Amino acid sequence: MPRTTRPETRSTPVAFRAYADSPITLQSHILQQQSLHPRVTDSFSWILSALSISAKVIAARVRRARLEELHESQQKLDVIANEVLLRTLGGREGVAIVASEENEEPILLRTSPTGEHRYCVLFDPLDGCSNLDVCGGVGTIFSILRHDPLLRPQDSLLQSGTQQVAAGYILYGSSTVFVLTIGAGVDMFVLDPSIGAFVRVAEQLRVPDSGKSYSVNEGNRRSFPAGFQRYLDWAQAHAYSSRYVGAMVADMHRILLKGGVFLYPSTAKAPQGKLRLMYEANPLAMVIEQAGGKAFAAPGEPILQLVPNAIQQRTPVILGSPAEVDQVLRHLQQR
Ligand code: FDP
Q: Could you give the count of Cα atoms lying within 13 Å of 182 in the half-sphere of its Cβ?
């Protein structure tokens, strides 16, 4: 006997209603942006489309990870993700240099003749990959900088985060989510497997001003600088929740949608912090700031203003809702 369907009582969120009415794919969103912002050139759009294709390929491999690893000869998924991105981006005329967290050295693909706009694309192909063993969320993080043909490849890459022309991440979780900023707010897309396209589900995302949760590896607490220990005492006394996935993209995504603060301080094991400035901290700092949040390495040191001196440089990270980041900074400044 057919089940009787109960009338839908919960209201559909606005963003999803818009999708049901007329889906905007990432591809059409990029074209829209091109018509709105003259700085979004054809070659830049092709780079975003390469990232979108790579994300679909990697998402498909992540879905099969637990099946494929049954075969012993299987390559590691972070290596596969790296190759997919290098190959897809490498074919785009607009890419001058690719730099991957997985590779020691950046790869110079082509120079930029005068008048030609080319870009450097930096990425962490599969961040948080220890989570794969337990079917947890993992992600790809990317950052796009303008290429300066007059500089050596290394120097062309060593720009502060304020110079990023776009940044974002892809979260391979219960859905595959693509979060993008081109410096004019943050938009979110979800992969619809039935049509094989990323569809826009939210425009101009804003991180909540506050959110009573912190995200940190508390196992390292004893070796955190004193200010972080003071902050954690304060947060626990004020009934904050602790939420830590251990994959930065997944922790960041939760904070972007629900508020809170993400912390990766310096520790005894990682005195400069563990996270990479150019592959992780800068792109996620750009996203959170474009969504109205804050990102600092220390009091008075916004992440985006740090001038890198090495491509693999590490930094402490404090990012999230503005009110929560301020609380952390306040505790760091106390004597
Ligand atoms: P992973 O080593 O699994 O790739 O920088 C990488 C990262 O994960 C982040 O994604 C994550 O936030 C952090 O390291 C987790 O580090 P801890 O295990 O030290 O908490």
A: 18
Q: Which atom of ligand 1 is nearest to the CA of 274?
A: 5
Q: How far apart are CA 142 and CA 139, in angstroms?
A: 10
Share of the chain above pLDDT 90, in %: 74
pLDDT tens for 170-223 read 999 999 999 999 999 999 999 999 999 999 999 999 999 999 999 999 999 999
Q: Which burial class, exposed, middle or buried, applies to 152 when counting CB atoms under 10 A from its CB (0-12, 13-18, 19+)? A: exposed
Q: How far is the CA of 128 from the centre of ligand 1 (A)?
A: 5
Range of lowest pLDDT (20-29, 115-124, 179-188)? 20-29
CA distance 215 to 246: 9
Q: Which ligand 1 atom is at minimum distance from the Cα of 245? A: 12
Contact 81, 58 (CB under 8 A): yes
Nearest residue (by CA) to ligand 1, atom 5, is 275
Say yes or no to pLDDT of 53 above 50: yes
114-136 burial, b at 16+ Cβ within 10 Å, e below that, comes to eeeebbbbbbbbbbbbebbeeeb
- Ligand 1, closest atom to CA 275? 5
